[in-house]
Amino acid sequence: MDNKRCNRMIGWLKAGFYLPGIASLMMFSPLNAESELTDEDYWAPVQQPVVHPVWIQDRHTGESVLTYVEEPDYSLWNGQRITDYEEAMQVDASPALGVLTIEKLNINVPIYNGTDDFNLDRGAGRIKGMAKMDEAGNLGISGHRDGFFRSFKDIEVGDDIEIQTPRGVETYAVSSINIIPKEDTSPLAPSDKKMLTLITCYPFYYVGHAPKRMIVKAFPKQSSVE
User: Fold this and answer.
1) What is the pTM of this model?
2) From CA 200, how far away is CA 204, in angstroms rounded?
3) Is 201 a catalytic site residue?
4) Which of 20, 64, 65, 89: CA 20 to 30 A from 1?
5) Fold of 51-223
């Protein structure tokens, strides 16, 4: 075999050896500036939500359960409300009674006993005088319109609402949504039936003390409560 032919064969062998490596490098190399692909064409890892541990406690039995809630979505929150929440979370206070979750609205919030300013700064509040957690009757829960309950502006009839307590999780379905004057207390009336009443101020972006209330009524849908 002459030297010229021998050199050509060696060149082919070298090309065959390096081509797979070159192809692999091209697969992971940045596209040049003339590429028509956009950022959406690149694979990106899914961001996992930040979660916080929360103890929920049955005030009658003392039974406690450790659960987790997601970091609030501050994108719709009032700036002062964010500050109030962060300050409230630095205080070592009584545990929550449960957790309210509306997955569609990205709401995942602890429920505390009472609707004083401190409780509503750190979560939602059970309205005292109404039904207790896990009991029959009209369970009332309130939250700030410029904080946890801001996304209530997008709630619809039929949406699922979950209430978690140490006894388990109960799912409710929204049956009605009404706007009433703030002086109207009829939604707080007791009931023989198990039901849920969620209350927040309205309009959502009103400057000052809102003159109305949004009332969301819901009834049990399915239950895993013990």
Assistant:
1) 0.78
2) 9
3) yes
4) 20
5) Sortase; Chain: A; (2.40.260)
